[in-house]
Design goal:
It contains 2 helices and 7 strands; from the N terminus they run E-E-E-E-H-E-H-E-E. It is of the alpha+beta class. One of its GO terms (molecular function) is hydrolase activity.
């Protein structure tokens, strides 16, 4: 856990909060991790701008980095909501999503959202990763 914000032993923030934003990258609540909307960024937190395929794969990697703080992987994801800037990208996004998500068994919703700014895609996620004893 990178942030000292803690409500209880099983409810706390994950990752470093941007001081300009009113939320954390993710929050653990018991056995679930709720990941805030993530966009395509590299390991140094720089935005990646590219094709919908490149941005989809980069966004999934961003989610993977956030949940790795809790020992979770993309195979632990149980739900993703995707916000596309343009639904005409759906087919290409869907193909890249299938490539990037691996063997995860999950529910998914995809919607067009005009609030997606300076990127083609944003995703939030719910992860099921039981707390380890002693956490």
């Amino acid at each position: 856990m990178s942030d000292s914000t803690r409500k209880s032993a099983s409810h706390y923030a994950i990752g470093n909060k941007n001081p300009n934003l009113p939320f954390h990258p993710a929050v653990r609540a018991g056995d679930f991790i709720f990941v805030s909307g993530q966009v395509p960024k590299d390991e140094n937190n720089n935005m990646i701008s590219g094709t919908i395929e490149e941005e989809t794969l980069a966004t999934l990697k961003t989610i993977a980095r956030v949940i790795a703080h809790e020992g979770a992987t993309l195979s632990d994801v149980v739900r993703i909501t995707t916000y596309l800037e343009d639904t005409r990208d759906f087919g290409r996004y869907n193909k890249a999503f299938l490539e990037g998500i691996g063997d995860a068994v999950l529910a998914r919703t995809t919607v067009e959202a005009k609030a997606v700014i300076n990127t083609k895609i944003e995703m939030d996620a719910i992860v099921y990763k039981p707390l380890q004893a002693g956490k």
